[in-house]
Amino acid sequence: MSSPHFVRASRDGDQFHYLWAVRRCLGLLKPDRALVAISIEGPSPNELPSGSAPLAGECTIDVAEYDGSEALERANAVRYLQLKHSTYRTDKVWTKSELKPTLAAFGGRFQDLVRRFVADEVHRKFEFWFVTNRPVSQTIRDAVIHGAMGLSSCSSDETGLLVELTGLDEAAISGFCSLLRLEDGHAAVSRILPQSAGPFTAATIKGTFAVSTLPIFAAPVAPPMGIAPWTNETGMITFDGTSSFSATLDAAQPGVAQGGLAAADSYAVASNGRVTTGSGNQVLYIVSPTRVLLLQIQANNPNPTIQDLRQ
């Protein structure tokens, strides 16, 4: 009789796929979810009109989720996922050579989608997920994060790495990275920052700070109607050092951009550096007198963002 250890890894991988897919299928039962269909082992055959040429990367897709419709033209959101499980190498970091086939296939599908649809529509409705129980290289993760912020945020090495991994030209890299989700069970923004010495008061953060949104590569949840899946913001925020702040921001959501938005609120600082606002829509943490992290916590937004405030 053969040893069960010879087939354990394969069986574990199958179970990972089955159980993960079943858990996602439970979303079909929720009346408040826009999810209407899930396809297993490839995209839905109803994505494109009959007789259409297939899009690239079909064999890479283990699970595909469709909000609104299986037809790509009518769908509100489409998520393509590849699932990778390891029994014996759970602590082994994914290398670029291991990730390249998946990201290149996703990149090819992204290119086909951009050719078929308006670019804004692609960025509004499509996402590419890589889900694994092994950690993804921090070098690759940082490159994707910076790529999503624009190639001006990438080092030359990071740009070269992204081109190598995806097969895309530099003009397409940022758009693709903004749609890529790396789900390895580790937070995408996971650095522990040293905090300056306290205690802290309202006067600790005084003056004007530049605002930028940190990309979070976590599993997004379909938001309530009228709420964008995420919002990227940049601008300036000024604290009076006593109890109030004001901000001027430019914001971008999928398919929508707004400039010159004004906001104001009151704030209170605890001695440990935790900052609460009068509206209750944000919580902030003081890293130092020149850096603050802000978390959006609106009750009706299931995909909050983290903003980095720096002087």
Describe the 3D structure.
- This protein is an alpha+beta fold.
- Helix content is 25%, strand content 30%.
- The protein folds into two domains: 179 residues, no CATH class; 109 residues, Lipocalin.
- The protein contains six helices and 13 strands.
- The strands form two sheets. It has an eight-stranded antiparallel β-barrel.
- α2 packs across α5, α4 crosses α5 and α4 packs across α6.
- The protein is globular and about 65 Å long.
- The N and C termini lie far apart (68 Å).
- 26% of the residues are buried.
- Rounded to the nearest angstrom, the distance between the terminal CA atoms is 68 Å
Elements, N to C (H/E)? HEEEHHEHHHEEEEEEEEE
Strand arrangement in the largest pleated sheet = 6-7-8-9-10-11-12-13
- Helix percentage: 25-40%
Please indicate the percent range of residues in DSSP E strands (runs of 2 or more): 25-35%
- Please state the CA-atom Rg, rounded to the nearest Å: 22 Å
Uncertain stretches of 5 or more adjacent residues: 1-8, 186-190, 216-229
Tally of separate helices: 6
Using DSSP, what is the number of strands? 13
Q: What's the overall geometry?
A: globular
Return the domain count. 2
Structural class: alpha+beta
**Mean pLDDT, rounded to whole units?**
82
The biggest sheet, with number of strands, parallel, antiparallel or mixed sense and barrel status, is:
8 strands, antiparallel, barrel
